[in-house]
Amino acid sequence: MTDPSKIKLSHTQRAAYVYIRQSTPGQVEHNRESTARQYALADRACLLGWAKEQIVIVDEDLGLSGSSTDKRSGFARLTSEVALAHVGIVLGLEVSRLARNNADWYRLLELCGITDTLIGDNDGVYHPALFNDRLLLGLKGTMSEAELHIIRARLDGGIRNKAARGELRRGLPVGFIWGEQDGEVLFHPDEAVTGAIRTVFERFAEFGSARRVWLWFRSEALSFPLQTTPAGMPGPIRWVTPTYTALHHILTNPVYAGAYTYGKTKYERYIDEQGAVRKRIRHLPMDQWSVLIQHHHPGFIDWATFQANQARLDSNTRPKPHQPGGAVREGSALLQGIATCGHCGRRLHVHYRGRNSAPGYHCAGKDLVNGRGVYCFNVGGTAIEQAVANAFLEAITPAAIEATRLSVEQLQSNHDAALCQWRLEVERTRYEAERAERRYRAVEPENRLVARGLETEWENRCGTSLPQKRNCGAASSNDPTRSAPSISNAFRCSAPIFVRYGPRRRPPIVIARNCCAPCWKKWF
Questions:
Q1: CA distances from 234 to 261, 277, 354, 431 (A)
Q2: What CATH number is given to the structural domain containing 196?
Q3: Domain check: are 34 and 114 in the same one?
Q4: Which of 52, 163, 418, 516: disulfide with 220, CB 3.0–4.6 Å?
Q5: Do residues 73 and 192 share a domain?
Q6: Dihedral pair phi/psi, residue 126, rounded to 5°
Q7: Inter-axis angle of helices 244-252 and 303-316, to 10 degrees?
Q8: Which of 190, 186, 214 is CA-nearest to residue 200?
Q9: What mean pLDDT is predicted for residues 228-251?
Q10: Binning pLDDT at 50, 70 and 90, where does residue 503 land?
Q11: Residues annotated catalytic, as ranges
């Protein structure tokens, strides 16, 4: 109820601010009646005694949440004007429109009480300097904040309860779609999509490195599926050049192992250098995930293989001090990352000296000798690596034939996987060309506006299909098993690669394509 005695001449001589806000852009677009009611508060200000030219509409915060003042420039401007005693009354449809947290609400009440500013809503006009009005406004602010908490708790409770059963439909990575049943996850119906995903896991099982898998896809000039429709919904797939990030995401996503997960991340609030409250996403370890349901749906790999892959990926990163492991880095040193100091147990560091960049090993632990720090251990690596290479070749000589057979099988497996992807690519592009042809032939000849566009699309599809057929034919004719005798010779002559170093580059690690042992020896 409005008490006219609270409105004084000192109030009407100042401006009347009408604060307008909706929490989300969707509410601004769809809940237009609420927005219209808030703009109508300007007419109520005129009925209370303010002239039209004294009324200021503050609507910069439309589509922003009232849970904090972050990014709410309209509320910040309103607060500053109240603090400068330029405002006679602040009008809002409800108290919750002004602020949804007590910190911002009570700060505004305190400023209004000091500067003799009134607050009005749909129920009446209040003076924050009066005890009863301040008490009522405080209760309204507390109820507004509690209302937000209750609504969020209800929504989160329902979401978490459904996620605990594995039935909450969220975004699925490429290769999966949602089925008709609750929580049903199916493979993508496109065989080319699932084949590309399976190839990623097969090549990782062979190479043991995400980067090697990515380089293999690039070397074979294979495309990779990219989902353009909403996640988990069947629709057209766009084929693009594979990226390392996409392949690494596939290898680290538990969904591909048949697991349903929820709560892998959480939002955190922090204060930045400027003192503003910010939010950030923090990834949680697996033991802190809210929901983890193994064997929820068919996967490309099982859970044990997924855990082994994660351990392998973690071991490929640079290890911490005094810990073994890690991927081999650049350089020709044979024992990098695996040699340790016999004095203190530290892992030896690698250095290169001389015109030929001969490798050497040293221990970073230093001792004081005559007031100077010296390495715990420092030795050249040529003689040591010669001995290690001789011992290694002597140990594997009985298994040379078996190693050659395994190399041939590995090359054949890689060739078959690439050829399978090329055949699926040819089948997909042929289907798209045939579909474009059917669409062109189905249009009426007189409708040239549509026929010209369909004819152009048909030509583009045919132009895309022909190179794919040529590449598939080239990949089919390039069978690596035809060079099996050369592979055997290359294996017997591979010892110099481990033990000789010089200013010349070593031959590429592509094994024996129309090459023989004398060609390899000329490098050394």
A1: 21, 40, 61, 18
A2: 3.90.1750.20
A3: yes
A4: 418
A5: no
A6: -130, 150
A7: 130
A8: 214
A9: 80
A10: very low
A11: 23
